[in-house]
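Our consortium's second objective concerns turning raw sequence data into structural hypotheses that experimental partners can test. To show how far this objective has progressed, the report includes one record in full. It was chosen at random from the queue rather than selected for favorable results. The single chain below, 346 residues long, was entered without modification.
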Amino acid sequence: MKSKLFSLVALAALLLGACAPAATPTAAPKRVVYLINGALGDEAFYDSGKAGLDNIAQQYGVETRVIEANFDAAKHAPGLQAAVEYADVIFVISYGFEDQLKAIADENPDKIFVNLDTVVQNQKNTITSVDYIEEEAAYLAGVTAALLTTDTAIKNVNADKLIGVVGGDVDPVVDAFIFAYENGAHAIDPAITVERKYLGSWDDAGKGKQGALQLYDLNADVVFQVAAAAGLGVLQAAKERELYALGVDTNQNDLEPGYVAGSMVKNVGLSMEEVYRTIADGTYQPGQVLEYGVAQNGVDMVFDAQIKVLPQASIDRVLAIRQDIITGQLKIARCANWTAGGGCTP
């Protein structure tokens, strides 16, 4: 999913998409579905998409519906079928049912399918994929964690150069986050140790809390959560131990004020709105791979909070590195090769 092969596939898709006719309905879209493999209520990835869907409904006056698979594979096929029966435009997070998505897209070329967060391409080349360059913002999260753990002037930060990360499960996207997080931390101080925990769950906040507590017991000062709703437990653990966490996907800095040092956001909703705008104005082309990094406002690192944890000098240092990414002065390594249990390599 994050391999060099995908870069070649993405280029081919762009070329094919440029030649293909727009797969817009014969009339203006009237119904839009947001189909997700998980569930709303994570205050992160899935909820970001729902906010975008709500804005689309308000701006364009279309009817919308959310279909949640709730991490249940038995709901994938019925969810897809319900989506095509109801909607003209289908935004989908298809983890675990990519092949089923390809098949139903081929069977329904009159429908617009926009796959979010991974690259999925069907034979008829009608699926557009939104690929977030999460490594850019996760790198900034690693920089943030490193600046925190090396600053013993911050309350309760110990002398050990150790930071943590909690992942919902072992998969290419989570490991891409961790890969870049480690690279960002080591860019500040190569002596920093990064400890990780995988939960095997995306919705069990109890497991998230337990995983974070285990990392704090190892003397981690800060833990980055990459675990959707399960990661809310990481933030709770930070407050309980009076230590620090980093949020993910949306700005979670005020969920536990004073204990969330920053959040790596993935603007799912905003990208949905931008793609829908092209559908509405007739410029949409199917089969493209749209890359959203920091420069495209697809991902970012944010520090807005009721109570800021980091001193302004550290925040300014992160923002300066962020600007180098935007201008292209700093190139962030991406997860080009992934193996289960082996993680990512450039």
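The partners drew two points from this record. DSSP finds ten helices and 14 strands in the chain. Residues 222 and 244 are 5 Å apart (CA to CA). Both points have been shared with the crystallography group to help prioritize constructs.
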